[in-house]
Specification:
Blueprint (H helix, E strand, L loop, with lengths): L10 H6 L13 E9 L2 E11 L6 E9 L9 E12 L3 E15 L2 E10 L4 E7 L7 E6 L6 E4 L3 H7 L2 H8 L3 E7 L5 H5 L8 E11 L5 E7 L2 E7 L5 E6 L4 E5 L1
Parallel strand pairs: 9-10
Antiparallel strand pairs: 1-2, 1-15, 2-3, 3-4, 4-5, 5-6, 6-7, 7-8, 10-11, 11-12, 12-13, 13-14, 14-15
Length: 252
């Protein structure tokens, strides 16, 4: 069964942060064709991200297809929505708001949706599937502490928006602590090894120098393994490698 999901600040801060992006970094809209390889085979991926016309939300999407650009046969798809704001009135952040993930297996739909509930300080999860264990609704309290939260499939855009990527590349060093929300939960836990069965995980991102090809590499320690995020000479998102899971994603 192939299941794939693409890549903290407290909810009180989520509620109080400004939504204005007048002094925030600019994230360009983009749409890109990519190739995914993991232990279950090779696939084609279409990714896109950008602000809504009113600038109030930032939306990232991806779809996974079989090889050969069979875009009429979607294997998986994800949409995550975040809102621009500021942490402690200073640091620009993309605040997770809601997500939807779908995967088709043997013709059956497995779907999970998440939404941030500010009042209860919890992540609301809704699941639909042909299996009883993955049906219904649940609420998971947010972990304590103040910091940066990112949806897993939006990590690249999330860390770029803070300005961390550009600053770390200029200074050739940098370290960022963040909390990941698995927007594909609980299906990503079924696909990948050694992931705890919960939607939140702590992570540490560090600048890791340049590759011989000239890409800037960042390593993210998460769940006992390391995910590498590579950016090209223009500091644009280029590639993702997760060696422990046999996972790679790169432009097609």
């Amino acid at each position: 069964m192939k299941l794939f999901s693409l890549l903290g600040f407290s909810l009180l801060l989520i509620a109080s942060c400004s939504s204005s992006k007048s002094t925030s970094p600019t994230l360009p809209d983009y749409s890109i064709q990519m190739r995914l390889e993991d232990k279950s085979g090779a696939f084609e991926v279409k990714r896109s991200s950008g602000f809504s016309p009113n600038g109030k939300t930032y939306v990232s999407r991806y779809k996974v297809f079989p090889e050969g650009r069979q875009e009429n046969k979607v294997l998986e798809q994800s949409t995550v929505v975040s809102t621009p704001g500021f942490l402690k009135g200073k640091l620009p952040v993309l605040r997770p708001f809601q997500s939807q993930y779908k995967v088709w297996f043997d013709g059956s739909l497995y779907q999970t949706e998440t939404k941030i509930d500010i009042k209860s300080r919890a992540l609301l999860i809704s699941m639909k599937s042909p299996e009883k264990q993955w049906q219904g609704r649940s609420s998971v309290p947010f972990p304590g502490g103040n910091g940066i939260f990112c949806y897993f499939s939006q990590v690249v855009e999330c860390i770029r928006y803070t300005g961390f990527v550009d600053k770390a590349i200029r200074q050739k060093q940098g370290r960022l602590e963040l909390t990941i929300i698995w927007d594909g939960y609980p299906y990503i836990q079924e696909q990948y090894l050694n992931l705890r069965n919960e939607p939140f995980v702590q992570a540490v991102l560090e600048y890791d120098g340049s590759t011989k090809e000239g890409d800037h590499r960042f390593s993210m320690s998460v769940s006992g393994s390391v995910i590498f995020y590579l950016f090209n000479e223009n500091n644009e998102y280029a590639k993702i490698f997760w060696p422990a899971q046999g996972f790679s994603l790169f432009p097609n």
